[in-house]
Automatic annotation (TrEMBL), chain A:
This is Biotin/lipoyl-binding protein. Keywords: Biotin. InterPro entries: Biotin_Carboxyl_Carrier/Decarb, Biotin_lipoyl, Single_hybrid_motif. It comes from Sneathiella sedimenti. Residues 1-72 form the Lipoyl-binding domain. It comes from the Bacteria. The keyword Glycoprotein does not apply. PROSITE patterns: BIOTINYL_LIPOYL. The keyword Signal does not apply.
Length: 73, 538
């Protein structure tokens, strides 16, 4: 079992979360959409696995490199 | 001195030939000593650390059998009481000329297996921070390749010399001068600090290997002594810091072989020197290839990003793009590529990263790339989707405004032809950094193009603050004003005024760009030679 932290590449805010804890994801799936510089930025799963935790919710502000959720694989 | 010739000398037949004349016996003995480098054990250690020896690197990088060594015999000889040679330790630096992609280069690199590649005191420096190899590149106007794997000066050299040297070795000015004359490339293939680290930066393209190479102004022991902090050398100066975060080194590679391949690739786009044009290669990708996919690559919804990398690949010659600094300053993409076999530099904003907004790191990256292309007569194509400078506290603390204006300043000084093609947004001062207003100032646009001093959203809120606040329904009033102003934002209205020169069908992008780049050749030829330095950049 490895836990992968999915971090934000940008400063912005969480617009919507597209998945739930426990959902299976494949690398490249969109987990949530951030809003940054008036643009919708999809956050994609870096690996295959299962979402174990969300560390943010809609409308939260996020910083560069901030962990958004974790994936177990 | 040919490696291959020496190999055959070492066969039995060759040995017999040279053994017949005593003078050649000594030459043979000394050449073999040079090839043995720091000895079997040191070579094994080098390999165990996941690294090649300097001679293996040369044969990996250069065309087969093309390396002609200079200074093979330089080193320290040990003699017995009758002055007979007992042993030679070769100099910790190997140099010579070779061919890369069929064209000559000057090449040098430290031999880490000999005294850790430390600076070598001889009558004349072989190379590294100025020496024979840098002079060879200067006088023969050929590219310089530095393979860096050495610790530079050590405090023990003061003991040998009897005094401490003043900073700045003689010959360093040559390394500086070369940056305006010939392509200089460097690979960091070990742990580089001090002088060798500085030398890696004095280049037009630099590459390092993830996991086996590090670069810093000073290593962990100095950090510990100066700041009392423990830090591991990979964290301090590995590729994650030096390439991805800082942009100190341009590109990272996963293996030494890949790093050397990147150097071959980079040099394939470069002329031999600033008095020549970059090489044109035959192209089997049709010039008139129209890509219908480009018509709907930009999403209708203005807030949705798309892949600028895909867009570039659809336009340029198949498999011809080579991205510089792909992991740093990611809101802009800088790529060397070809259009109908001719080299172009592509500067493209990346809507997937901060909407393509220019921040300090992407400004640095764009400036360096524009200067590279300008120096080596490579025309620039700007694929524009920039909403402006990056905003926010962090951006202001990083001097985004100043760095961004430097990009505008450098764009305004370009002497190579530039083509600006607006894909979507082109706003404000960051938009100014995507064209050369002092020149013919050729601006094309796709129908999806939009521009102005600042985007309508946000702009309306600022300019009509009182109007909006006094309205019965401020939200609705803001929307109304936005809709009114957006009508003026049609690119066709600007084309009516001939303030963009042409709006093109996206599918025609490749044929049109190929034509302009072919046209640029006469102009480039008329402006060969070194570029004038101008003024104080902001």
């Amino acid at each position: 079992m490895t836990i992968t932290n999915v971090a934000s590449e940008v400063i912005g805010s969480v617009w919507k979360v597209e998945m739930n804890v426990g959902d299976a994801v494949k690398a490249g799936d969109t987990i949530m959409i951030l809003e940054s510089m008036k643009m919708e930025i999809p956050v994609e799963a870096p690996v295959d696995g299962k979402i174990t935790e969300f560390k943010v919710q809609p409308e939260d502000s996020v910083d560069e490199d901030q962990v958004l959720c974790t994936i177990e694989s | 001195m040919h490696n291959r010739e020496l190999g055959s000398e070492m066969s039995d037949a060759g040995k017999k030939d040279v053994a017949e004349t005593p003078i050649n016996e000594e030459l043979y003995f000394r050449r073999v000593a040079a090839l043995e480098m720091g000895g079997k054990e040191a070579i094994e250690r080098q390999h165990a650390n996941g690294r090649l020896t300097v001679r293996e690197r040369f044969s990996e990088l250069t065309d087969k059998e093309s390396f002609r060594e200079v200074g093979t015999l330089a080193g320290s000889g040990e003699y017995d009481e009758n002055n007979k040679l007992v042993r030679v330790t070769p100099a910790p630096y190997v140099a010579g000329m070779a061919r890369v992609n069929g064209r000559p280069v000057a090449i040098g690199g430290e031999d880490f297996t000999v005294r850790g590649g430390t600076t070598f005191g001889a009558a004349r420096r072989k190379g590294g921070q100025g020496g024979f190899i840098e002079d060879l590149a200067h006088y023969y106007k050929i590219p310089l390749v530095n393979l860096i794997d050495g610790a530079g000066g050590t405090v023990t050299s003061a003991k040998r010399r009897g005094y401490v040297a003043f900073p700045g070795v003689h010959g360093f000015e040559r390394s500086v001068q070369l940056l305006g004359e010939v392509p200089v490339v460097s690979a960091v293939l070990g742990t580089a600090a001090g002088g060798p680290a500085g030398r890696a930066i004095l280049s037009h393209f630099s590459v390092m290997v993830r996991g086996t190479s590090q670069i810093f102004a000073a290593g962990p022991p100095v950090v510990k002594r100066s700041l009392g902090r423990d830090i591991d050398k990979e964290e301090l100066g590995g590729a994650a810091t030096a390439v991805d975060k800082a942009g100190t080194i341009h590109n990272a590679a996963d293996t030494e072989e890949e790093a050397l391949e990147q150097i071959r690739r980079f040099l394939s786009y470069m002329p031999q020197n600033v008095w020549e044009l970059p090489p044109v290669v035959p192209c089997d990708d049709p010039v008139d290839r129209c890509e219908v996919a480009l018509r709907d690559i930009v999403p209708e919804k203005r807030t949705q990003p798309y892949s600028m990398h895909d867009l570039i690949d659809l336009v340029v010659d198949k498999d011809s793009s080579f991205e510089i600094q792909p992991t740093n300053g990611k809101s802009v993409i800088t790529t060397l590529a070809r259009l109908d076999g001719r080299v172009v530099g592509i500067v493209a904003n990346n809507p997937k990263f901060y909407s393509g907004a220019m921040d300090a790191s992407s400004a640095h990256k764009q400036i360096r790339f524009m200067e590279l292309c300008d120096t080596f007569h490579i025309p620039l194509v700007f694929l524009v989707d920039v909403p402006g400078f990056m905003v926010g506290l962090k951006a202001e603390q990083e001097a985004t405004l100043r760095e961004g204006m430097r990009a505008v300043y450098v764009a305004g000084q370009l002497t190579v032809p530039t083509i600006t093609l607006v894909i979507r947004k082109c706003y404000g001062m960051a938009g100014m950094a995507t064209c050369n207003k002092n020149d013919i100032d050729l601006k094309l646009s796709w129908p999806s193009g939009e521009w102005g001093s600042l985007p309508v959203e946000g702009g309306v809120a600022a300019a009509f603050r009182r109007d909006i606040a006094n309205s019965d329904d401020p939200k609705a009033r803001e929307k109304e004003l936005e809709a009114e102003l957006r009508a003026y934002a049609s690119p066709f209205r600007t084309a009516e005024a001939f303030a963009v020169e042409e709006i093109i069908d996206p599918s025609e992008t490749r044929p049109i760009l190929c034509e302009y780049i072919a046209l640029a050749e006469g102009r480039l030829r008329a402006n060969l030679g070194p570029k004038r330095k101008a003024g104080v950049s902001p």
